[in-house]
Amino acid sequence: MEYIVINGQNPLNGNVNISGAKNAAVAILPASIASGGVCEIDNLPQIEDVMSMISAMQSMGIICDFKDEHTLVVDARNITSHVLDEKLAKNMRASYYFMGALLGRYKQAEVPLPGGCDLGSRPIDYHLKGFAALGATCIQEHGVVKLYAEKLKGANIYLDCPSVGATINIMMAAVFAEGITLIENAAKEPHIVDTANFLNKLGAKIGGAGTATIRITGVPSLGGGEYTVLPDPIEAGTYMIAAAITGGDVTVENIIPKHMDSVTSKLKEMGCLVTEGDDWITVRGAKDLRSCEVKTAFYPGFPTDLQPQMATLLCKAQGTSTITENVFEQRFRYIGEIKRLGAQIKVEGRMAVTKGSCVFTGAEVSATDLRAGAALVIAGLCARGETVIGNVGHLDRGYERFEEKFRSLGADIKRIKRDD
Length: 420
Ligand code: UD1
Known about the structure:
Distance between the termini: 7 Å
Bound molecules: uridine-diphosphate-N-acetylglucosamine
CATH class of the largest domain: Alpha Beta
CATH superfamily of the largest domain: Enolpyruvate transferase domain
Shape: globular
Mean pLDDT: 96
Low-confidence stretches: none
CATH architecture of the largest domain: Alpha-beta prism
């Protein structure tokens, strides 16, 4: 078994380059199924979720060749199967994108229900309702979603809540639907815009991505093209929070500062000095962090994927802070582990309340999911003594060269193998 071992209390200092966005990459890769040519996708992060996505694509006869470490050439013209294997689907949440991608291009798909982080119930009913509105028949049996259609026809689709996955999935299916599809109450996250930009580069007609109404005019076919994945706002936010908690001075580079507004604003409210340029943000930690209230929300609100990291930072602030989780009903499962490191935090329904001025002390803990793992690392970085984190496979799913990047900022962090 592999563990991450941290000896805490080194302030982080220096510059860190942010990788391509996980959630954009895992949408753009299956979206390339729509292409009628060869696609070259650049700035792909080297993370397990991307590798799982590539394995799943290869299992369907899609040719995927790395041109260099971060550039993949994809040729989906000779796809051999519309069925995704259950084991491959269970490796990641984003396997649901094969539904929209295959249905759109081939009018048929068989995709097992997805895996991914356990954040409570994560239904895909909006995805299926959207496909049905476009004219597909959806059957769910033995944990597999089967979709087929003679043809797809544009429709007006209203989402009960702005689901990221449903917005992208319906958008992919609608690219080839006859006429116009409107997705109302669509999600506005940066990776929605990135996926739409990628499809448009291939010849799709998608307007309004990044707003609540997305308008897709069906086209008969798409070509190939080159595309660069946007930088990862969640990875950037993780390093910004790590800088703040260690009282360090860190510049996150190769980012889009606008995507970080909700995080920047909270760090400033807590007393950190935050400055930004065209493609970078510097966070300088404050000696005494002020308490604050944080509420997760759909973009441009504070991202749920930074909630565990932010909750950890709030534990250090002076006085009581609150963080309310409005996206996933059970995203506080990591709290027990963070308490083992000394956090004084209690959960009341959808809100976690921190007592403040916490002195973290090293202990052995286990990552319960990807972002919870990042929160434990952040706590370990400012803890007294040694923190040992198990279940680190979660971190490999979403962070490229995690320990290496932290080490370059001065952290005492390493990975060990241990016989258990
Ligand atoms: C995506 C991200 C994940 C992020 C989340 C919210 C990927 C691969 N994952 O997950 O990292 O935490 O967005 O920003 O991009 N819902 C339904 N029915 C549906 C779909 C969603 O009820 O059919 C609900 C969910 O239970 C949840 C909310 O809508 O409460 C938002 O979920 P959604 O935006 O779909 O998240 P994911 O696509 O699973």
